[in-house]
Design brief:
The structure is a homodimer of 363-residue chains. Chain A has 363 residues and is an alpha+beta fold. The first copy, chain A, is 47% helix and 17% strand. In chain A, the strands form 3 sheets. A 5-stranded antiparallel sheet of chain A has the order 7-3-10-9-8. A 3-stranded antiparallel sheet of chain A has the order 4-5-6. In chain A, strand 1 and strand 2 form a beta hairpin. At the A-B interface, helix 6, strand 4, strand 5, strand 6 and helix 10 of A face helix 6, strand 4, strand 5, strand 6 and helix 10 of B. The first copy, chain A, binds a DNA duplex (30 and 30 nucleotides) through helix 2 and helix 3.
Chain lengths: 363, 363
DNA sequence: GTTAGCACTCAGGTGTTGAGAGTGCTAACA
DNA sequence: TGTTAGCACTCTCAACACCTGAGTGCTAAC
């Protein structure tokens, strides 16, 4: 359990095995290990140490005459103690900065770009959770006429989120009713959080107090609720799901591949898993995950907008992944997003370059 | 070429081969054919006919001692002349109607449901193109303040489409400037189509005429253009991409599967292909498609909203698919969407059921 | 024109075999 | 006492041969 169980040499051997296995995907044997990493020790000695490591649960054996493979426990140790998380060279950093800068005025595109970068640079499947809005407060509700029996519901929240949805009415409306409806709803829900509004008994308040609106309300309220729900549901953007085909652990095994893709297709489930992870950089390996991801690893990190923790991004792939590199990439990207969307006060250095001095506006 | 080249018996045999192959996926031989379809003819005779059919290009041979497989030309003949497009039983129809009814007030969810239905019932990968907006005209443009350096741009079109996007400004704004900007832009672009606005020289008009807005404009206009572009880009919803794993043509062949999934991952390309298809139900088989889809078939159909052709839906899968069934499903779904979103005047029969008479509103 | 018979072909499954990589154990060594 | 060489043993994997079943094409008879 305790890494202190392992003497220096065991640690060194374990690290070498993990490094070799991560880069090749093949079980590593004592002989080849003693060749590739010159550690002044014979294969036989390595075998003895390996045998110990296996007994301690750090290594496993696919079959008698195969080399050793790191266990989830070994990866855990590696991630906690051994790996190098500063594996990004300047070129990689530059690439990330450039791509994220391209769209630095718009959160949505930035986030899409982040997902692309993430899957490109790790060669894994990446995902980004769009900003969460649980506690965002409603600002106003508006109905726009479209045609004789269609209106658009528009919900605007204080944090700038706008959500809209076309609604077909079962009975005609009047302009006045529509405006009244907008006013009443805005009045009722302004400043309240989405979840608070959803908990209210909305239909009733209309049938009781505002009879002239009750027919319109009957059409509109269900859509209103659904739209609120949609605002709550964090939107998951994914990228690079076909990357797994280039990984040996999948390319031989159709069933595994299918399982993986089916798992990804269940976005709700995946969103759930991601939402419920710890803050900060979190790495879960193999059986630390739930059953259906028990031979996958998940690495996630948060990003902030205006200093507030709003979203999460990460990758999913086989337990054999380049933890060091991947973690560095994720960290760098999430930090970069957070910085880009820092409060204005804190980053007037770079931003002002674009601004050629003709500023007239002033709040 | 001409199906009239084929006498009654050849047609019958061809149809039988296609039917068998579609349902099993195995090359069909003369002997097994004479067993399964009793057509009072010996295997030897069938062999002779098959040989003729092969010479005419309707059948191929994976190798000497395998059975026959229909060619793309055979499928084309089958689709044009032989297949039965009324293969939906009442249960299927019911299922479609029910699911689409669930969300009949909201176009967006209806369309998502349509994609789900389509992939479920065909066991293929389905896609639905959201309503197209090339010619929709702008109604107004609005900017909502969010925080000291973020605003939300909101574009509303006459057809009820609303698009919004958060913009971070490089310099502060004033409420007045924001409102002025909304007014000016609304005034300039109201009633113009999206494509027309995109063709205009927007930045210039601000730097010349409205100096006080030029700094704000510099921040806002690029995002405005990007947003318009996004409104133009038809949004593609896909479903059931992992269905292909259950098909024998893929489940043996990793490379083919990978190719298929990579093709699906390039949404822009796929959208392009779908947008450029003919109106109505269109079936393209194998090499009738572009190179990268040359052993796939594509079936698409349009749906209308308020009588206007707005979107398209369909499936993609191996050339061996149940053309009759699939076509029936697609047709039924697209008709159903179109009906559900018919102009109110034409479908007051069903709709009124939900409406319990307390209608007060009246246009 | 249709059919039975027959020689021929080929993919795919099964069994065998040998090479290669690896382990574990033992005995000798420093 | 820890380290190492040597060796027997194990297991996978690729190659090879072989067989079977399904199918074809051709020919000759009906």
């Amino acid at each position: 359990m305790n890494p202190n169980d392992l003497n220096e040499r065991k640690l060194q051997i374990l690290q070498a095995i993990i490094a070799d296995f991560i880069s090749t995907g093949e079980p590593v044997g004592s002989r080849s290990l003693s060749k590739s990493h010159d550690m002044g020790i014979s294969p036989a000695t390595i075998r003895n140490e390996m045998s110990d490591l296996e007994e301690m649960g750090y290594l496993t054996h696919p079959h008698t005459s195969a080399g050793r493979v790191p266990s989830d426990k070994a990866y855990r140790l590696y991630v906690d103690e051994l790996m190098d998380t500063s594996q990004l060279d300047e070129a990689d950093k530059q690439k990330i900065r450039t791509k994220l800068m391209e769209s630095r005025n718009e959160l949505d595109s930035t986030i899409e770009h982040a997902a692309e970068l993430l899957s490109d640079m790790t060669n894994l499947t990446s995902f980004v959770l769009m900003p969460r809005k649980d506690e965002s407060k409603l600002k106003y509700i508006n109905f726009l006429p479209v045609d004789s029996n269609t209106v658009v519901l528009m919900i605007v929240a204080e944090d700038g989120q706008v959500m809209n949805r076309a609604i077909r009415l079962t009975s005609p409306y009047t302009e006045e009713n529509l405006q009244l409806m907008s006013k009443v709803m805005t009045h009722n829900y302004m400043g309240k959080s989405i979840s608070a509004v959803m908990a209210m008994d909305i239909i009733d308040s209309f049938t009781n107090d505002m009879e002239s609106l009750s027919s319109l309300a009957a059409d509109v309220v269900p859509s209103f609720l659904k739209t609120l729900e949609k605002m709550l549901n964090a939107d998951l953007v994914m990228n690079g799901y076909s990357n797994i085909f280039s990984l040996p652990e999948f390319s031989g095994d159709m069933q595994k591949t299918q399982q993986f893709l089916r798992m990804l297709e269940d976005k709700n489930r995946l969103t759930d898993v991601i939402v419920n992870r710890d803050k900060g950089v979190m790495i879960t390996i193999g059986d630390e995950n739930s059953e259906d991801m028990k031979d996958l690893s998940l690495i996630t990190a948060d990003y902030r907008v205006n200093g507030e923790l709003v979203g999460r991004l990460g990758v999913i792939g086989p337990t054999r992944m380049k933890y060091g590199k991947v973690t560095s990439v994720i960290k760098y990207i999430s930090d970069n997003i957070s910085q880009t969307f820092e409060l204005k006060e804190n980053n007037d250095i770079k931003e002002e370059i674009e601004n050629d001095g003709s500023t007239e506006a002033d709040s």
